[in-house]
Write a structure and sequence with these properties.
By secondary structure, the protein is α/β, with parallel strands linked by helices. It is built from 14 helices and 16 strands. The N terminus is likely disordered. Bound molecules: 2-acetamido-2-deoxy-beta-D-glucopyranose (3 copies).
Length: 412
């Protein structure tokens, strides 16, 4: 090769890399559609006193009971495959070799045995650690042990790592999260990588580096933890609606914005509000991690978690995250392009909590749908078909307070 040829090659490689910088996602073959599973945190927290709360205490039996229900109640077959243990699973100290150990009273069989059990059910095991010196609940952190911990998780048969960011320096996070990603890769075991890093720097524009999040992580938390209430839920939806940092542009096969766990089936939402969460998580191509007690689920909540139309919108292979196209007087419209040419899912949320159902008259043009001669519509929740409607033809929508209407609009 001549020097000129070598220079040209280097230049081409550079151009290729610059051109792909915005779109490169973590290449571990995982999360080609938004990951689905169950995560213990929102519902079971750090309940570790098994005398006081035997039914809710975080133990291997609790995790196994949820695994059993994921299979017997049809969640696994609907696509929920990860069973993810969050903070508080560890003993308070590493062993004499510096290896992490699970709490010996609550996880007496050890994590390898638990992973075998979970795998035996056709599910995958997720685990939690923290990039800092300690986890958020003050269990041993991974700082200075990243490579060792990555190998420990791989040896146990872990399939997902959620890496939190308490007790660390935000300036170290980019290097640290990238290093952990490389150590996970080096184990040779495909491990879905969930990063809390962006949530810790969300108010620091200089440290908010979406191309780096996307290149490093399969899934990343952007914003605050979800709590079991409408206010918490809506504050999260509104954050994504404002789309600051253009974050919807970074969602796609291999890498997803994560608005946190599903609280459907918990204690804080009305039935309409549960539909808002499930509907919006579908629209936003969000990872779907249920956090509820699968031993005791209201039939309505279960039907929603298993709703085939909503799951199909969430899992659409195009992987586009919906954008809020407008918000006026406590009503807002979101649109998600689908893989079927010309088709979109759209959602109208009525966030008004006063009074009666509200009536809206909106044409496809006023909704903000892409221009076309006409649209056929399908109500996602009732499966009812309606239309066709000309692009400028008004359609009547009636929506309850703090509730949502979701439909597919298809030109054909
Ligand atoms: C657990 O709760 C019981 C009350 O049921 C209490 O007596 C005990 O001190 C608690 N244990 C710990 C470790 O906090
Ligand atoms: C490790 O990274 C390489 C290059 O990005 C990728 O091809 C490979 O699939 C990754 N392996 C694992 C186990 O994540
Ligand atoms: C946001 O993302 C869209 C879609 O990728 C892109 O067209 C647009 O230029 C981006 N805007 C900014 C400000 O980066």
């Amino acid at each position: 090769m001549t020097i000129a040829q070598a220079c040209l090659l280097v230049l081409l490689v550079l151009i290729y890399q610059i051109g792909h910088d915005q779109v490169v996602s973590l290449d571990n073959g995982l999360a080609l559609t938004p990951p689905m599973g169950w995560m213990h945190w929102e519902r079971f927290r750090c309940i570790t006193n098994c005398t006081e709360q035997p039914n809710d205490c975080l133990t291997e039996d609790l995790i196994k009971s949820q695994a059993d229900k994921m299979v017997s109640e049809g969640y696994r077959d609907a696509g929920y495959q990860y069973l993810s243990i969050d903070d508080c699973w560890m003993a308070k100290e590493r062993d004499s070799k510096g290896t992490l150990v699970p709490d010996p009273v609550r996880f007496p069989s050890g994590m390898k045995a638990l992973a075998d059990y979970i795998h035996g059910k056709g599910l995958k095991l997720g685990i939690y650690e923290d990039f800092g010196t300690a986890t958020c609940q003050e269990y041993p952190g991974s700082e200075f042990y990243l490579q060792k911990d990555a190998q420990t998780f791989a040896d146990w048969g872990v399939d997902l790592l959620k890496l939190d960011g308490c007790n660390s320096n935000v300036n170290d996070m980019k290097t640290g999260y990238e290093a952990m990603g490389q150590f996970l890769n080096k184990t040779g075991r495909p491990i879905l990588y969930l990063c809390s890093w962006p949530a810790y720097v969300q108010k620091m524009p200089a440290l908010t580096d979406y191309p780096a999040f996307k290149k490093t992580c399969n899934q990343w938390r952007n914003y605050d933890d979800i709590q079991d209430s409408w206010d918490s839920l809506y504050s999260i939806i509104d954050y994504y609606g404002s789309n600051q940092y253009n974050l919807s542009a970074y969602a796609g096969p291999g890498s997803w914005n994560d608005p946190d766990e599903l609280i459907v089936g918990g204690f804080g939402l009305s039935s309409g509000q549960e539909v808002v969460q499930m509907g919006m998580w579908a629209m936003m191509a969000s990872p779907l991690f249920m956090s509820l007690d699968l031993r005791n689920v209201r039939p309505e909540s279960k039907a929603l978690l298993l709703n085939k139309n909503l799951l199909a919108i969430n899992q659409d292979p195009l992987g586009k995250q919906a954008i809020r196209v407008w918000k006026i007087n406590k009503v807002e419209v979101w649109i998600k392009p689908l893989s079927k040419p010309g088709a979109s899912a759209f959602a109208i949320i009525n966030t008004d909590d006063e009074g009666d159902p509200r009536v809206f008259h909106l044409s496809p043009a006023e909704l903000g749908l892409p221009q076309t001669a006409q649209y056929n519509m399908t109500d996602v929740l009732t499966n009812e078909h309606f239309g066709p409607f000309l692009y400028s033809q008004s359609i009547k929508f009636t929506i309850n307070p703090t509730s949502i209407f979701i439909a597919i609009a298809d030109p054909s």
